[in-house]
Amino acid sequence: MADSSGGPKRPRAPTITVDTSAVSDAPHTEPEPSSAFISPLGRDTLAIPGRARGDSVNSNTSQSTTGSHTVVNSPSPSHRNSDVTHIADIKSEDDVWKPEDEKEGALFYDENSPFGVTRGHLSKLLPRKDKRAFYHLRGITGLASALRTNPKTGLPSDEEYLKGEMSFDDLKNVNPGEENEPTKGLTHSSTERSSPKDKKDTLYADRKRVFGDNRLPTRKAKSFFALAWEALQDKILILLCIAAVISLALGIYQSVTKKASEGARVDWVEGVAIMVAVIIVVGVGALNDWQKERQFKKLNAQKEDRFVKVIRSGKTQKVSVYEVFPGDVMILEQGDVLPCDGILIEGHNVSCDESSATGESDLMKKSPGDVVWKALDQGQDTKKLDPFIISGARVSEGVGTFLVTAVGVNSSHGKLMMALNEDTDATPLQYKLNRLASYIAKLGSAAGLLLFIVLFIEYLTRLKNPTDPDGTARDAKSKAQDFVRILIVAVTIVVVAVPEGLPLAVTLALAFATKRMTKDNNLVRHLQSCETMGNATVICSDKTGTLTQNVMTVVAATFGRGSVRAGDKDKMPTKQGANFTDGTPGSASTDDSGTTADGSVELPIYDLHERLDRDFQHILKDSIVINSTAFEGEEEGKQVFIGSKTETALLDFAARCFELTNLQKEREASTITQLIPFDSRRKVMGVVIKSADAKYRMFIKGASEIVLSKCTKVVDDPLNSTHATDLSEEDKSTLGSIISSYASMSLRTIGMGYRDFAQWPPQGAKHSPDNPSDPDFDDIFHDITWLSVVGIQDPMRKGVAEAVATCERAGVRAIMVTGDNVETARAIAKDCGILKEGGIVMEGPKLRSLSPAQLQEVLPKLCVVARSSPEDKKTLVQALRGEGHVVAVTGDGTNDAPALKAADVGFSMGIAGTEVAKEASDIILMDDNFSSIVKALAWGRTINDAVKKFLQFQITVNIVAVLLTFITAVSSDEEESVLNAVQLLWVNLIMDTFAALALATDPPAGSLFDRRPEPRDAPLITPTMWKTIIGQTIYQLIVTLVMFFAGKKFIPPFNNMSAAELKSDKNTLLFNTLIFNVFVWMQIFDALNCRRIDNSKNIFEGFWRNNFFMGIIAIMIGGQAIIVSFGGAAFVVTPIYGYHWAISIVLGFITLPIGFLIRCIPDRYVRIDLPVKRFMAANTPAWLQRYLARRRKPPPVIEAGDMDDDHIGKEWHRVYNQVHDDLALYKQLRGRRLHVIKMGIRHPRELLKSHRSRSGSRNSVLPGLVAAGATLGSVGGGITPDRRSINSRRPEDGDASSTAPSRRGTDEV
Questions:
Q1: Of 542, 582, 1002, 1293, which is the active-site residue?
Q2: Which of 124, 534, 677, 1075 is in Cβ range 3.0-4.6 Å of 133 for a Cys bridge?
Q3: Is the pTM of this model over 0.90?
Q4: Could you tell me which residues come within 8 angstroms of residue 256 by beta carbon, excluding any fewer than 6 positions away?
């Protein structure tokens, strides 16, 4: 390694052999971790920002990689002050362990610790990246000794309590690179201390006691009483309570002073009843909130837990992220989100994205701890050496192992998360409902104020009257009571009008849906995605594992120039009577030896071991076994291959045909010189090994047509020798037709080849821009010798064709986006119904070459994109969204993250997906099945429908209750409404809480897929809903007002009473009770009507499957019966006659046929919005029209290279606003917590700013703090800040450097 300052050069390290000898040969074990260091096939590499930067991966001065030691670039600038270049400074221990504050000082004292270091010592390593502390901890060897572990075999799998003690001074005796002397004589306890029943609790007990586990403390949930107290903070409820207290005080005074001859002393009952009703309303709301928090807490815990790979007792194990402890040796792979802090032990080309912790957007290369310690010990410049693994970072490239040093609250990411404490923000639909609720509340408040003014004026005109209209004397007490009654009625109207049940409805719908979606294999990470998914218009789906089963088997193979072919006849399609030119066994006549008429040989797969040349088998087996990332493991008691399904299929093929018995030993026999990880752009992967004759062989495996295009030679006769001859154009044509034939039969094709080199790196080869010591792969990827092409069968999932047909019926288009061969993709797309007649199939390179205008023409008919890269998927998503589509996209690889973020809804794969893909997604498909996406679509529509059902019901009740109360109160001589305050509160409880519970729990109905998705700008209340609301309001008002003004003339027994009898308190109370009962029964039946928000006639669809709805209706009926029969003075009611009950139920039931007739009326007759728009257009001033047009027009997307001076000025203003937003976030974070974001009503301008997208900019002032919230779920359990809306912009705002375009939330009302 050359010193950047011009110092002496250190000789190049020798090639390092991957050594797996530390692993036991016992059966049913997984391999030693070094065998997993090959970068995983199919896990893509994150795109590196396209700008050179000093001390980064892109820097031309980046250091070299030798053997398995990766010399890495500098950490972030904020940490460079910790780099020490003078040996005297390094070896000085002055102030290294000095605590920065009292809190850190407490970490240096761990009582009864059996370890040689404390949390305080380990906290000096990260997040400071303090290399002096690392040096004095004696590197990897010293840390392993102090933590009582082994860097090769990890922790004992049965460790409980540790015997013996160590001190920090014992580390001075440690010699880095040698055996851990201080641990000699210190043993781990056996399992005798605990029984199997409680062994789980005592496992790693000392580590858990001293260092803690990998969990973050959850934010304490609010208690029921705290939630109730918050609900009581509503100003209108407070006003109502004050009025109730005044009424109670006056009532008590009147009751005490009332004479026995003046009637029962129950004047206090009204005040008590109002207070009790308020308590019930608040209590029910608080109970719902409490249950909602518990449900989401469970979902979050499930969302955050995951499994990671650690080495324990020399075996690779998968453990929960919560069960990782300091001292563990963890395996890191491309795409992992690191759950804890640590030091790299060894690895291949490890690079990490640490932007979530340091703010650096460039990738940081890592070097092994031993290399760094030696460089420090020799006084070399270590600015470009970084062994530190930071929790929350993402592994962008490479594989390796690291020693865990801090977990949970003691990790660097945990400390950051403990400083952030915030509430979950509301979803876009909740914001829309809040705005609508504010309008309704304002109208209700205006009605209440108007009623108060009218009644108060009437009250003032009667103040001088000594008696009431009925002749009762009026004293000061009665006048005060009359005033309080007026106030209570007015305030109660406001309470009824305020639709506090709207937010409750969407909350309940989301809670119910997310819980059910989890059962349907959809783990929801962001609530707003549930709403958005309901209106998705396009689903861009992967093929492998989503449309197919991802259960792969090699069923066909062709060797050499095509003269030797093999296949499973029971699985492969056959073409009887056809010439065998497509590589399909059984399609031509053969003799006993399998030779066909054209001289080629056709063999069953199980005969390959007997017929192929032994040396050729050895080469082919090495190409499969060594150039692979899969490994052996145990699942459900069986020994299986674990890894990419393509890899495991090839290993199974090698086991069946080439006597692969022990994968670990096969790999141990080879010396790996360099790994070439799979790259989604190249579509190939490779490995370079050193052969016995001191030469080097590079094995290549990948997309068959790409490998074939780089081949110039071919093994001539695989049956007899490995001799290679030139590959002619005719041979290429033959092999190309075989590949196309396999692909047309829905087989995935993988090509294999090799190339030999006399030395490594090859003489004259260009150097890799990332690693000058490595050759540039593209420069040496030619002159390959062709070995074989195999056809891998991946059957289509059951139910996929039906799911695609369901999407089509629902107006949702499915597009297949796959990296497979175009013919394979075409065949699968036809089988599952995605590719229709006239549909377009296009390859990724062709898609990239289209101009925007051409792409716009192609999109309506595009069905399949084959050989696509993640960038193609992102481009497609952006183009579709630009056309106004609501796009859902699936992804499993690391490089799929930008597309997942760019889409309106991102689905990651729960089985095959990387952690980066899961973090970037909104919903995780736990079964990787396309059918589960359709279920998510159904639940999304159900959520939106639930809110609209409730809205339809609420507005109807609101209008009727407010108008009925207003009209009857104004027309009454006593200034009293037919519905008193307590009755209105019961109605409020029905329509706000019970209706929300009933209508928000409807399961998805089959008719959901019979309508097209709603546009983004569709209003919450559709014309069909307005039609129902208006129709039901008219009917209910006619019934109640006719009864109030004329009912005494035709309803028995009132029609037979005299005027004096009708005015008696008893009969007035009976009549008002009847009207109250009729009103409530109409609401009960209208709740059934509101189950339909379209013109469908069947209101009982799914009714009998919704036990919750039936239970709520039963509670409403029972509650009404109890109130009328036994409510008495509290509710100001009296028991009614049986025929009055019949009248109430019949009038309520009539709402059902009324609703049926209303739905028969075409919507066009109620489209009042069109005349209103025409009127507004004709009467709006021109300047206002221009202003509104500018507000509606989205800003154009301008590429950086196309900007003129005017565009640059506009861009500067945009950047200025972005910096302003970043500074605002910084202000929020300064107090070590985020300010609580309320779910209150905001101006639409603020909503657009906060909910335009979920993605942040890489140019943000605080990208680390913003990204921190996105990675918490993978670090450990606990607080899960999700502030994707912070520092966000629309895609049309543009950001040339952003790799994750934003997504748009649901539009405003």
A1: 542
A2: 124
A3: no
A4: 265
